[in-house]
Amino acid sequence: MRIGTLGEFRFIERVKKRFPKQSNAVLSIGDDCAVLGFTRGRYLLVTSDMLIQDVHFDLKKVSPSRVGRKALAASLSDIAAMAGIPKYYVVSLAVPAGMPVAFLDDFYSGMIKLAKEYGVELIGGDTNRADVFICDITVIGETEKRSLARRDGAKTGDDIFVTGSLGGSIKGKQYDFTPRLREARILVRDFRIHSMIDISDGLASDLCHITDASGVGAVIYEARLPVSRDADSKYGALSDGEDYELLFTLPPGSDDTVLNRKLGLPVTKIGKVVQRRRGVKIVTSEGKKRRLEKSGFRHF
Amino acid sequence: MRIGTLGEFRFIERVKKRFPKQSNAVLSIGDDCAVLGFTRGRYLLVTSDMLIQDVHFDLKKVSPSRVGRKALAASLSDIAAMAGIPKYYVVSLAVPAGMPVAFLDDFYSGMIKLAKEYGVELIGGDTNRADVFICDITVIGETEKRSLARRDGAKTGDDIFVTGSLGGSIKGKQYDFTPRLREARILVRDFRIHSMIDISDGLASDLCHITDASGVGAVIYEARLPVSRDADSKYGALSDGEDYELLFTLPPGSDDTVLNRKLGLPVTKIGKVVQRRRGVKIVTSEGKKRRLEKSGFRHF
Questions:
Q1: Within this chain, do residues B84 and B117 fall inside the same structural domain, yes or no?
Q2: Distance from first CA to last CA of chain B, Å, rounded?
Q3: Complex ipTM more than 0.85, yes or no
Q4: Would you say residue A53 lies in a domain?
Q5: Terminus of chain A with fewer CB atoms < 10 Å: N or C?
Q6: Are A161 and A266 contacting, i.e. CB atoms less than 8 angstroms apart?
Q7: Angle between helices B181-190 and B256-263 (to 10 degrees)
Q8: Would A261 be classed as within a structural domain?
Q9: d(CA B23, CA B20)
Q10: Which residues face B272 on adjacent strands?
Q11: Which of A126, A146, A166 is the last residue before a domain boundary?
């Protein structure tokens, strides 16, 4: 069988089976970050993201500084998903020999600016030759043990919330999004977060990551989805990737106007966590209940 | 200017200047590992190595399991250079869609076997599509603060030692080398290591890394070089890369037979650390003193 046939998620499942979790890792393969019990009160968080020219970005269409910014921002979003504080990053690059030095300067400029904003420090990396430009960033962060947010804690009855708006990120937000680091810290400080993830694969897919990991079902309401004006349709809010918003669940009774105010950005209650046997469903704008597929949902 | 003209070391210098070391990092860009002061008594070590198909290896000539082994071993060697203990690793992959799953299984097999030998745990990674196979491994390790070996501690009068034999690693050792983790730990436990590095770029180049960082000079003796039988000439022991042996300095008077016995492998005294103004020299087999260039030395 070829990798293209197996697909990414089944590949990750395979790797997970071959590398059972050992002593010190609290969470490992398949989560947003690896979580390591490093000191008595704190966890160490580790996450990697690789960006490949002509797979993830087209240098004819996007400036090097935006690529550099995004490369770091995607990993910061993984740290945010677990309510961590990013501390350090390592950059491994593959660079075509003919690439202008000015390109790399610009690439680093985008990264530096974002890194400064969040107090993250570049500590090393590796530089190599290749035919295309590739960047792999590893971010190391930390969090108090009591503040860790994870995807497997959703409970039946929880309300489901999402920050910001969803869909159409391909029009620009995929590069210029704000990693929700500050918001995540406010959430774990002021609310009883049961589960959290960042939306990188699309709402439908990432909601299923929460329900699968938590052993629960969910119902969301199409009419409540905070559809971005960049989205081509409501469907985009479910299936478009790279929104990098936070998807989280709270015990019933939480008020989204309080959340809005505390976080200083729109937060929308989009549904409820239900029992596992009820599956993951969407109630369409026409009031019909449909099964939510990882790639969105089938209208008929 | 293009990257190919600037070269790797000048590029690293540029990056170092743009990212001055901040608060928590003890050592950062340009060393074998980043060293972070994470807890009171221990440092955290972080290192990354990227391997790219057709740049670093040719899948027509080498099995996936050997590539997998090497990908991890190269980072473990960086941990060894600082006398650290490797704990965790993260694997970011770029995989062509048409690659057989059996290839990846074999790749991971080579990695797993080595990881088990040294008790290193896979904790995460990222998987992507690309036209060629790329693997970026980040290893996280630790060491007691007092055990840290660094490249900048060489002192005038030190003897210079090297483990194993050098040169010709292209014939096989570049894949099957033993990262000198155990040996490094014995060295910091039983000897007063002043400086250490692993030989990845070649003895001449890595010796200059030690002398540059320490602000010293060095004299080595061609006749004493432990030339591997795989090396094409004595010159290969100076300039061939990927030996992954340890190069270190000890206060004068250390005996290489004691080192041999403690480490259980050949250790050779190859020269002495001298004052900075005397430069880095090699005494040839004919008794002539030559300047040692990073790429070896000029005979005439």
A1: yes
A2: 32
A3: no
A4: yes
A5: C
A6: no
A7: 130
A8: yes
A9: 10
A10: B159, B219
A11: A146
Last residue of a domain, one of A91, A117, A146: A146
- B277 contact partners, CB below 8 Å, separation of at least 6: B217
Q: What type of residue is A97?
A: A
Distance CA A12, CA B91 (A): 12
B153 and B208 share one domain: yes
Asked if residue A16 belongs to a domain, the reply is no
> In 3D, which of A75, A272, A247 has the Cα closest to residue A164?
A247
- Domain co-membership, A85 together with A220: no
Give B101's contacts in chain A (Cβ within 8 Å).
1-3, 6, 11, 14
- Sorted by sequence, the CB contacts under 8 Å of residue A229 that are 6+ apart come out as A165, A168
Residue B16 in domain: no
Give pTM, 2 decimals. Answer: 0.88
Q: Mutate which of A21, A136, A139, A151 to test chain B, going by most B C-beta atoms within 10 A?
A: A136
Domain that holds residue A61: 31-146
Do residue A270 and residue A189 come from a single domain? yes
CATH of the domain at A289: 3.90.650.10
**The domain spanning residue B97 has which CATH number?**
3.30.1330.10
Of A101, A127, A140, the CB nearest to B2: A101
The amino acid sitting at A57 is: F
Test mutation, A123, A129, A201, chain B, max B CBs within 10 A: A123
CA distance A182 to A169: 21
Region class of A12: left (phi > 0), else alpha (psi between -120 and 50), else beta: alpha
Going residue by residue through chain B (300 aa), what tens digit of pLDDT does each one get? 776 777 766 766 776 666 665 555 666 566 778 898 878 889 999 999 999 998 888 989 999 999 999 999 999 999 999 999 999 999 999 998 888 888 888 999 999 899 999 999 988 888 888 888 999 999 999 999 999 999 999 999 999 999 999 999 999 999 999 999 999 999 999 999 999 999 998 999 999 999 999 999 999 999 999 999 999 888 889 998 899 999 999 999 888 899 999 999 999 999 999 999 999 999 999 999 999 987 765 544
> % helix / strand / coil in chain A, to the nearest 5?
35, 30, 35
Same domain, B182 and B164: yes
Place of tokens 């990188």: A200
Which residue of chain B has the CA closest to A142? B38
Q: Is A201 helix (H, G, I), strand (E, B) or coil?
A: coil
Phi and psi torsions of A152, nearest 5°? -100, 20
Nearest beta carbon to residue A28 from set B38, B124, B128: B124
Neighbouring C-alpha atoms within 13 Å toward the C-beta of B262: 18
| Whether A124 and A158 share a structural domain | no
Residues A141 and A105 in one domain: yes
Structure tokens at A61: 């269409």
- A167 and A52 inside one domain: no
Contact A110, A65 (CB under 8 A): yes
